[in-house]
TrEMBL record:
CDD domains per record: TM_PBP2
Protein source organism: Hoeflea olei
Entry's localization field: Cell membrane
Domain of life: Bacteria
Name of this protein: D-ala-D-ala transporter subunit
InterPro entries: BP-dependent_transpt_permease, MetI-like, MetI-like_sf, OppC_N
Length: 280
């Protein structure tokens, strides 16, 4: 409760949490709040590229579909990509970082050098290469992002574990006969949770931005899927006349990424004891 209270007292973090909550609610309720839920992938050539109006508040696209309805259903794709990709990255990176930091030596060095190989190449470039090789689809975007993002969590947990294993409470647990697995899972991992949570929040924003970039390059969900990045790509040839076509998904991406970044910064200030101590 104290963490929640401090989060609510932080205006920026509260704003970020509100944006993210709004995105989740929009994605869940899209079939009920979208003005034209049945026409998201339909063609209405007579209504194509209509400007914003009372009937279509964000205008229509090149197919004549309602941009606002496609935006709402696109939120579902965005959340799915971000949650699954980040979840897989955490599931891969955290155990690797935990094992490498705890045991060190050759196994730890090997695991960290492997992560360094991935980090040596810009993530967007590596993700593009993997997505291009596998072909355009939501599943391949998730796989490409997962394979390129796990080193961030591995590096973070490695540094935290390497410092925590020297603490007195770890030595005491080992002296009492606790196994290495028990020490890592019950003593070290909980003490890295705050850093993992902060990195995950910020990583969600970066994942959404990269997924949109892949969609923009034609490597994401195939047409006519209402994915935000692909929608912006389709709208390029109609700029600047049909500005609303690209402006709506672009603004949505901006707000969501900003929301995760604001929440991540707020959680860092709340959960990091060093920052809290320095602010007193």
């Amino acid at each position: 409760m104290s963490v929640l209270k401090r989060l609510l007292s932080d205006r920026a973090a509260s704003l970020g949490a509100a944006i993210i909550l709004g995105l989740v609610l929009v994605a869940i309720l899209a079939p009920w709040i979208a003005p034209y839920p049945g026409d998201v992938t339909a063609f209405h050539l007579a209504d194509r590229l209509q400007p914003p109006s009372a009937e279509h508040i964000f205008g229509t696209d090149r197919m004549g579909s309602d941009v606002f309805s496609r935006l709402l259903f696109g939120a579902r794709i965005t959340i799915s990509i971000a949650v699954i990709a980040v979840g897989v990255s955490v599931a891969i990176g955290v155990p690797i970082g935990l094992l490498a930091g705890y045991y060190g030596g050759f196994p730890g060095g090997f695991l960290m050098r492997t992560s360094d190989i991935f980090l040596a190449v810009p993530q967007i470039v590596l993700a593009i290469a993997i997505a291009q090789t596998l072909g355009p689809s939501v599943e391949n975007v998730i796989l490409a992002l997962s394979l390129t993002y796990w080193p961030f969590w591995a590096r973070l947990v490695y540094a935290e574990t390497n410092a925590l294993k020297k603490q007195t409470f770890v030595e005491a647990a080992l002296a009492l006969g606790a196994s290495d697995l028990r020490v890592m899972v019950l003593h070290i991992l909980p003490n890295t949770a705050s850093a993992i949570i902060v990195r995950t929040s910020i990583g969600m924003g970066a994942t959404i931005l990269t997924a949109a970039a892949l969609g923009f390059l034609g490597l994401g969900a195939p047409a006519p899927t209402p994915e935000w990045g692909r929608t912006i790509s389709e709208a390029r040839e109609f700029l600047p006349e049909a500005w609303w076509y690209a402006a709506a998904p672009g603004l949505a991406i901006f707000l969501v990424v900003m929301g995760f970044n604001l929440l991540g910064d707020g959680l860092r200030d709340i959960l990091d004891p060093k920052l809290r101590k320095g602010s007193r």
